[in-house]
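Hi R.,

Here's the chain you asked about this morning:
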Amino acid sequence: MPMRRRTCALLTLLTGLWSGTGHLAAQGDTWFRFRGPNGAGVSAATGLPAEFGPASNVVWRTPLPPGHSSPVLTATRIFVTAHTADKERDALSVIGLDRRTGKIVWQRDVPRQRKGRLQNVNGPASPSPVTDGTAVYAFFQDFGLLAYSLDGEERWRLPLGPFDQFYGFGASPILVDGVIILPVDQDRGSYLLAVDARTGTVRWRADRPGVISGYSTPTVYEPEGGPKQVVIPESFQLSSYSVADGSRVWWVRGLPCEMKSVASYDREHLYINGWGFPQNQPGRQVATVPFDEGLKRYDRDGDGFIGRTEITGTDPMDKVLAPSYGYDAFDLDRDGRLDAKEWEVFRRMMASENGLLAIRLGGRGDTTETAVRWRYQRPVPQVPSTLLYQGTLFMVNDSGILTSFDPATGRVLKQGRLKGAVDKYFASPVGGDGKVFLVSQDGTVSVVSAKADWDILAVNALDDEVFATPAIADGRIYVRTRSALYAFGK
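And here is the predicted structure, written out as tokens:
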């Protein structure tokens, strides 16, 4: 068998082993969840174009309402979510498109029942849907979970919320053996939810004390000879939970205070990057004091709390606590004052470290001392995930610096600025056909060769904002911009 065919066959096999959804992943032509099979961001597709844009290699273009969710695919459909707000309505939408032509086949709207917290550039249609090939399942922070057939017939709905994440909801639901798993990482009352995909009934709900706002989508892990687990990057730690009942199986401490990225992985190790504050960079960390000392320093009215208006100093801790900077992130119940519990979270947040970690999968209980393979603690991106593809780990930071790593050692193999990279990155890199695709917020798509000593193959301008991560299948790359969904192919 030629080398190229052997590589594709192996990739398809590994994708199926890690998918958690069975035969659909092994078909190679589906991209059924955020970042594709098990969130790896890797496709076995070939014949992908390096050069494309609004007037080049366009198979089709379909205008869409706004939304940050990424496209997911079945053999015949593409699904996205969207949000439409005007004088007449404030609606959340699930949209099904014909995969071959891009034509919108159906759109189902539900009312936006509340207006939950949204900060920075986050929107009410950010989580991506997930499909099992027979139905699509979508989640909105201002409604809950919904299930539709491939033809748009509503199967069930499960109202959920309200939620309390600092930036609003970011994690997407996943499917594991007929069960929808949704992590709810919020400042108060975090939990993990399992819902029967066929009926919409709750299988179990597992409370996760100590976990605060987070935005990461889980990864499925199946130990050799053992039951499946879901691995979730959380505040301060990475945890693995049983799919059967939500019990916590193992965990690794040492992650930053706020997680947004999705893990990359091979059969033995997982790679996860996280960024909290600039002050979480080693060497820039701010010293804090216990709560009783904080009261002596700040509590001018003697009420036993540290009020929002009581932070007036100018030393490093004062600057981090200032209402114009970090106070709202530490005030978990948003009541304008910090109690002893919130102060302790503040101290943990300041003590955590940004970075990229390589972690050995599996075990029981706290595996921190033996599981961390290496750490990289130069600046890492806030949102984009890493990409492990063809033996190299790729990472693009917020300023467009692309770094390739040896995944075994963490050694930097090459680092350089992407041509034309002048904007932030929210989309995560994806790989296929020996190429890595990286999309900035302003719609600049850099295509590089998937090798340690990478080369820039093309730089394409989409002339529109991009927050969604592309999907890849069957020689096409699907890119959602602020106003449209494109299918690019040769």
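One quick note: The CA atoms of residues 448 and 456 lie 4 Å apart.

Cheers,
M.
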